[in-house]
Design a protein that fits this description.
8-stranded antiparallel sheet; 215 residues; 4-stranded antiparallel sheet; alpha+beta; 33% strand; single chain
Length: 215
């Protein structure tokens, strides 16, 4: 209801839960995995397992499928056995072995240092059950130190680039390398950006305008 009917968006615990169940209903073999988020950190950082992703079997191969990693969500499936760069409609991604895990890296389009691969997350392929995600989901949604509770984060890929909104800063990153940044001045502008660029109509949600005003 939240993601499809109300079109309000969500995060990895919701997006990949829904997609996994849809794929299973279509007859695919799907395994839920958990990853340690490294975006914005060094690849050697020690972080908890706070990201949900999918391993899907199709045509005799195993694929990484992820629709919930915000502004760097892969827009294509990735072959889990391939250690060479893999293209998607947006960026290229690279899977490498790391201390018994797999490290996923991206080459962001329009980055200031486009020659540098950036780590997204690391994971192993041990199966996780729904109960395994409950603690991380609760903590990230309730902890006052979580960046999910202290600010606004929205992202959506478009055919020719990516839109992202972090608090009041609206950013466009085109596949041609062009970038645009704009600071939104008020709550009305935030609602307008959510509708226009992300397809989200959040008007009428109790307490939301007060939270937006405080960004």
């Amino acid at each position: 209801h939240k993601l499809v009917d109300s079109r309000r968006g969500g995060w990895c615990f919701e997006h990949n839960l829904l997609l996994g169940e849809a794929l299973r209903a279509l007859g695919f073999s799907v395994q839920d995995l958990a990853a340690r988020v490294l975006w914005g950190r060094d690849a050697a950082a020690r972080t908890p397992r706070t990201h949900r992703l999918l391993e899907v079997e199709a045509e005799g191969r195993q694929w990484l499928v992820d629709t919930g990693f915000g502004g760097q969500t892969p827009t294509g499936i990735l072959d889990l056995a391939d250690r060479e760069p893999q293209s998607t409609p947006h960026e290229s991604f690279l899977l490498q072995a790391m201390e018994g895990d797999l490290l996923l890296q991206a080459l962001p389009t329009g980055a200031n240092d486009p020659g540098a691969w950036r780590p997204l997350y690391r994971f192993d392929r041990a199966r996780h059950w729904p109960v395994d995600f409950e603690a991380a989901n609760f903590q990230l949604a309730r902890d006052p130190r979580s960046h999910f509770t202290t600010g606004l984060a929205v992202a959506l890929p478009a055919q020719d680039g990516r839109w992202s909104l972090r608090n009041r800063e609206l950013t466009w990153r085109g596949l041609d390398g062009q970038q645009q940044h704009r600071v939104l001045a008020d709550v009305a502008s935030l609602h307008g950006a959510l509708r226009t660029h992300f397809g989200i109509d959040a008007t009428g949600l109790a307490g939301l305008d007060e939270r937006l005003e405080g960004l």
